[in-house]
């Protein structure tokens, strides 16, 4: 085997190079500046060419290797290989279909989430359009569906068995989606398939949620509403503060270093407290506000609110369940993908210009990984739904087993973590 010459056309995985080196006489084409001289000297021993999506085997290279028997492309696409000429010459051609399907689909979803959530800088239901509904396109669609994304696609012809909406042109597809995924093989037909001429309007890759007309607010007259004191315990969304400022006498607790003096002066007018996961309403605060009628937590959790004491005092308590369920689940999957795929490290690698020196190291995929969830509530269930789309076996721990759940239950966190 060591006498068989294998020509590697482009730097690839170090593991692949090591394995070829062990078994064959491996020639790395990029190490020979005088390519023609090198080929003349070694042509008779080279029986195989290993290429990829960057450099394959064109007619000129094939003609220079009279002993060539096989061309292997370490990629899905074969656009860098002269398939017609190989067929004429009786040279076998292989590639790697399906080897990277799950990985590319994982990474595509990871990059969408990283972009929309700005993971490297530290939305749910975005319309996803896919150009090319082949293996990879279908795998991406399957994952995006789990995020409640409406899927549509363009391909040379409509897929009769597909449940996704078909558009007969790229322009129509791009006009009806917010994220556009190019998942088609590179051919002369698909080259520059996305360009300014074919794209009449910019894609909404970063389109924020849009809002319709403001809802009419009914209730007491404005003058009465403005007299109602609302105590906000912690800085929150500027929009929320603006809206409360418009409707009530909003008091921001963090602006008053002498908290006790401030509360004594304003206790008679404060009828509502707005807290969050950082600062809510404990027994001491509740006792200091005799006119308090409601505590609203701008969060899902209520652990910062003394619920038992509020019930005793007849104070209503509200929170925001489901408002952020889908967003938190999106972000959880995004962070898993960003961690396993090292997306933030890749971002620094590219920005630092290190890509000029070589490819980034191999990372690991998310698909098929066993996912354990502590707490199978609204958010846990939404995460499980998304992880399922990546063919991940799901198990969970909670205070008690969920009788309607199809996922495997573990009675302790230690058992869950061990599995």
Q: Could you characterize the architecture of this molecule?
A:
The protein has 419 residues and is an alpha/beta fold. The chain has four domains: 5-94, 3-Layer(aba) Sandwich (Rossmann fold); 101-182, Rossmann fold; 222-318, NAD(P)-binding Rossmann-like Domain (Rossmann fold, 3-Layer(aba) Sandwich); 341-418, Rossmann fold. It contains 16 helices and 17 strands.
Query: What's the CATH superfamily of the largest domain, by name?
Result: NAD(P)-binding Rossmann-like Domain
Global mean pLDDT: 85
CATH architecture of the largest domain: 3-Layer(aba) Sandwich
- Summed up, the helix count is 16
Radius of gyration: 30 Å
The unreliable regions are 198-224
Top CATH class of the largest domain: Alpha Beta
Number of strands: 17
Strand order of the largest sheet: 2-1-3-4-5
Q: In whole angstroms, how far apart are the ends?
A: 43 Å
Helicity range = 25-40%
In terms of structural class, how would the helical and strand content be classed?
alpha/beta
Q: What is the approximate shape?
A: elongated
**Could you say how many structural domains there are in total?**
4
Task: Output the CATH topology of the largest domain.
Answer: Rossmann fold
User: How much strand?
Assistant: 15-25%
- Major sheet, described briefly? 5 strands, parallel
């Amino acid at each position: 085997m060591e006498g068989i010459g294998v020509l590697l056309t482009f730097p690839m995985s170090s593991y692949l190079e090591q394995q070829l080196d062990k078994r064959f006489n491996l020639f790395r084409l990029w190490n020979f500046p005088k390519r023609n001289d090198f080929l003349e000297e070694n042509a008779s021993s080279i029986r195989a060419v290993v290429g990829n999506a960057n450099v394959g085997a064109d007619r000129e290279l094939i003609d220079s290797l009279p002993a060539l028997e096989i061309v292997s492309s370490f990629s899905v696409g074969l656009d860098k290989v002269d398939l017609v000429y190989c067929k004429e010459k009786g040279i076998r051609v292989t590639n790697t279909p399906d080897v990277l399907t799950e990985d590319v689909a994982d990474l595509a979803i990871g990059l969408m989430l990283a972009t929309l959530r700005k993971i490297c800088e530290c939305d749910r239901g975005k319309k996803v359009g896919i150009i090319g509904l082949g293996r990879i396109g279908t795998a991406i669609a399957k994952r995006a569906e789990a995020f409640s994304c409406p899927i549509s696609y363009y391909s040379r012809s409509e897929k009769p068995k597909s449940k996704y909406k078909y558009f007969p042109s790229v322009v129509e597809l791009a006009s009806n989606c917010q994220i556009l995924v190019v998942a088609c093989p590179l051919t002369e037909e698909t080259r520059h398939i996305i360009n300014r001429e074919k794209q009449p309007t910019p894609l909404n890759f970063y389109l924020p949620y849009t809002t319709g007309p403001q809802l009419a607010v009914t209730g007491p007259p404005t003058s009465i509403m403005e007299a109602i004191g609302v105590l906000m315990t912690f800085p929150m969304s500027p929009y929320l503060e603006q809206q409360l400022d418009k409707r009530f006498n909003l008091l921001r607790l963090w602006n008053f270093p002498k908290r006790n003096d401030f509360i004594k002066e304003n206790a008679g007018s404060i009828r509502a407290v707005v807290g969050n996961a950082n600062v809510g309403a404990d027994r001491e605060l509740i006792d200091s506000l005799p006119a308090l009628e409601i505590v609203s937590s701008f969060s899902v959790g209520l652990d910062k609110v003394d619920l038992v004491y509020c019930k005793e005092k007849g104070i209503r308590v509200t929170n925001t369940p489901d408002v952020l369920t889908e967003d938190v689940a999106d972000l959880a999957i995004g962070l898993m993908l960003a961690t396993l795929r090292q997306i933030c490290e890749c971002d620094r690698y590219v920005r630092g210009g290190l890509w000029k020196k070589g490819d980034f190291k191999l990372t690991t995929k998310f698909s098929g990984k066993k996912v354990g969830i502590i707490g199978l509530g609204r958010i846990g269930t939404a995460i499980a739904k998304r992880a399922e789309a990546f063919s991940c076996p799901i198990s969970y721990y909670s205070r008690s087993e969920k009788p309607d759940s199809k996922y495997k239950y573990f009675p302790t966190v230690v058992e869950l973590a061990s599995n």
